[in-house]
Amino acid sequence: MRKLITLLFMVLVETLSSFGQSDSAGFKSDLRIFQKALEETHPNLYRFTAKAKFDTVFDSIDQKITPKTTELEFFRLLSKIESLVREGHTYLLPSESLTQQLQTKKLFPFEVTISDSIIVVKESFDKKHSSYKNREINAINGEKSEDIINQIANSTGLKSGYNNSALLNILSFENNFAFSYYYFIDTTSTFQIHFENEIVAIPGIDNFKGEIYPKFPKECDPPFALQIDSLKRIAIIKITTFAYWTVSSSKKEYAETFSKYFSEIEKAGIKYLIIDVRDNRGGEEMLAAELLTYLVKKDFRIYKSAKANTLDFKYDLPNSSKFSFRKKDYIKTDSGYFKIQDKVLKTFSPKSKNHFDGQVYVLSNGGSRSAASILLSLIRFHNIGIIVGQESGGVFEDVDGRKKIKITLPYSKIQLSFPAWSFKIDVEGGDRFRGVMPDYIVKRNIRDTQSNKDPELDLVYKLISDE
Predict the structure, then answer these.
(1) What is the full per-residue pLDDT of the chain (467 aa) written as tens digits?
(2) What pTM did the predictor assign?
(3) Distance in angstroms (rounded) separating the CA atoms of residues 444 and 403
(4) Which residue from 278, 272, 290, 288 is spatially nearest to 235, judged by alpha carbons?
(5) Which residues pair with residue 93 across a beta bridge?
(6) Strand 386-389 and strand 440-441: pairing?
């Protein structure tokens, strides 16, 4: 009887110890698919990280997968690889199972604003702790804020090049930091938070049901607005997105709106034009080019080249998107398949009607990504205007985009998404590893946000008044 009890106890212990564990063979199979898809199909995988580094990390992660590896641990391992791509259009999304798990957990209790290595409380998710609003966080659970930011930056692809401006912009929106802390740092439910001269233990919050990561603001609709100050002869055009499919405006309506705006600007005798693309996450670069035709003085192109790594998709997955590219549209080279002709490779000419020849100022920040960052690259290269704000969320010379390849890994159900095309922007003279740097850098702080100040716009008005 004692032997039977001992045997049953051993079985129970083995069952409990294996609870929540995974089939390492399933994760290893997903890892191979993940690697094969990136290596065979990603259009510019080794732009910022050498192949040797990728190979070393893939081998290391393969060895780290054991029968005790959990789904969250596997997501973290893949995210380490994803972070090496350093192109914001390549990203991983947690599985539905991981998302559901997170929504039942107690997470970091504050919405924060992050600037460089500084984390400041913007709002408390629990009114009981609202007194900590505007306080700077020096450490969380013994880890310095700077180290936490670096860990997250090395664990996710929500960035481009060696530039964290897009990532910090994303982490500063609502619950994205709380979710990132759970996914990439720690699953703890209690947080010992180090403020200046005070250390407090604050329990996590669990009111995140139905929410996903990452979360983005709802797009303004309509996505453009014009303000004219006839007395000061200043006009402001704000464009919140070039992704026409996310709002109710068509590509034609964008073009018609730009035409209308510049007609009004011409009639008002405007001398100074401010273009605001802060937090514009991009979209259709042809719309950005349409805007530029009212500002440039000579012909221009958006891109020098467009290429794909392959025209044949060899992996076979039930939940993956594939494209049928016509080989006659491409020239094969040692570095990929280059598009012979495409609408995004065409040459654009300046508008003759309602062309603006006054002084242009452009407002940018880390939320200016993709097509908005391309716009900033072209503005800088063609010397169109003065850029004010923070480094853009893209990189100066390159962008991946257009057709998306989406894969759901069969075992873990983690989703991988990346573009089929890589583009070389038709610019020179910037840092190819960084975003577009402003002519005037404005360092924001939480008090600017809380008081509804606009330091970028205030600086532009000062520059204008100093002329």
Answers:
(1) 554 444 434 433 333 333 344 578 999 999 999 999 999 999 999 999 999 999 999 999 999 999 999 999 999 999 999 999 999 999 999 999 999 999 899 999 999 999 888 999 999 998 899 999 999 999 999 999 999 999 999 999 899 999 999 999 999 999 999 999 999 999 999 999 999 889 999 999 998 888 889 999 999 999 999 999 999 999 999 999 999 999 999 999 999 999 999 999 999 999 999 999 999 999 999 999 999 999 999 999 999 999 999 988 776 666 777 777 889 999 999 989 999 999 999 999 999 999 999 999 999 999 999 999 999 999 999 999 999 999 999 999 999 988 888 999 999 999 999 999 999 999 999 999 999 999 999 987 766 666 678 999 999 999 999 88
(2) 0.92
(3) 35
(4) 272
(5) 415
(6) parallel
Residue type, 215: K
Type of residue at 66: T
CB atoms within 10 A of CB 332: 10
Which of 346, 355, 377, 347 is CA-nearest to residue 297? Answer: 355
Q: Rounded to a whole number, what is the largest CA-CA distance in the chain?
A: 98
Q: Residue with structure tokens 């992996």? A: 315
Q: How far apart are the first and last CA of the chain?
A: 96
